[in-house]
Amino acid sequence: MEEYHTWQSFGNSHRFSFCQYPFVISIAAKKIIIQRDSEQQMISIARQSLVDKVSRRQRPDMNMLFLNMKVRRTHLVSDSLDELTRKRADLKKKLKVTFVGEAGLDMGGLTKEWFLLLIRQIFHPDYGMFTYHKDSHCHWFSSFKCDNYSEFRLVGILMGLAVYNSITLDIRFPPCCYKKLLSPPIIPSDQNTPVGICSVTTDDLCQIMPELAHGLSELLSYEGNVEEDFYSTFQVFQEEFGIIKSYNLKPGGDKIPVTNQNRKEYVQLYVDFLLNKSIYKQFAAFYYGFHSVCASNALMLLRPEEVEILVCGSPELDMHALQRSTQYDGYAKTDLTIRYFWDVVLGFPLDLQKKLLHFTTGSDRVPVGGMADLNFKISKNETSTNWLPVAHTCFNQLCLPPYKSKKDLKQKLIIGISNSEGFGLE
């Protein structure tokens, strides 16, 4: 942090700082810098709210120190959008979530649940904001024109809040999304400066639409007469709500044939249209949403692939590493129940291992530092062995009754991790 503050204070002067050479800093160290920077911003903004309240001779209230989200599960997207719009000035405070009608207190677990459910709804194909590409297993921005792009801003705010509050999300964006998100890494002072525009190639397109990228590569390497055999012009066609619309890639493009001489320009304009121009308003709203929370010089230290790791964590589950780093309360790792537990979990298929991770931590993704960073704990639950396991997602803690057989433990554990939506208080 001393290095980071030196770099912030002296910028591009001749004073040396490792932050001038971010490629030598590990992603784990960068994560610590971003977390501490976020914490300092949270404290500063909370302190300012307190000072403002006292200066107006009003009684301070603990709630004013947090970004308090109160949402109904049945109206999750609309309630979240309303709350974030009304509380725009509080985005840099510590996030706390309440589900209306539920008794759960948010010590971190409800926040994770809110992120998970909201992301699941927003990215559903019926919602129409994002298109899922089966070939690449990723989402991309829908190019459909609309009157209001506020929901794209909401997704950007969500991603920003996740990074700001150190929560991993199950979002499947292609790598070029994060390249665009850092273009530029700091919001430009001139509002007319385009944002989210970066140089793109067929390699970027291949990460989203591999078949189309392959077709364009074939066009570039075609040895015959492109104009006569392909009969294409500098024009693209897109279906929008059942209607085919045409767009010129350059002025008068519908009258300019694609030839062997200009095919490179055609391919470049086509890729730029798909990944930049056709979704400019959608991505700009997303960009401003993300940076409204994550406006920090620390972002300048990150490469696009590092932003992706911070947002999404790692999908690779190493249950042996989790076993090695697990802490116990009331149990010893040699106890029969614990041996049964790890025999069962290590034998689970991947989907059940992910459910267990989600059940106990609120997310099925692994943070930047690996399984050891979860601080996973198994506690003895001195209750009847007829009970199911209980999880405290705020503390990544699993409360396990002392089941007498491996079969009973496996049955109860599968029931528990497969039916785990909603919160209550013991």
TrEMBL record:
The UniProt record lists the keyword 4Fe-4S: no
Keyword Oxidoreductase part of the UniProt annotation: no
GO BP, one annotated term: protein polyubiquitination
EC number per UniProt: 2.3.2.26
Residue ranges of every copy of the HECT domain listed in the record: 87-426
Pathway participation: Protein modification; protein ubiquitination
Pfam families in the cross-refs: HECT (PF00632)
Domain of life: Eukaryota
PANTHER family assigned to the protein according to its UniProt record, in alphabetical order: HECT-TYPE E3 UBIQUITIN TRANSFERASE, UBIQUITIN-PROTEIN LIGASE E3C
Protein name as annotated: Probable E3 ubiquitin-protein ligase HECTD2
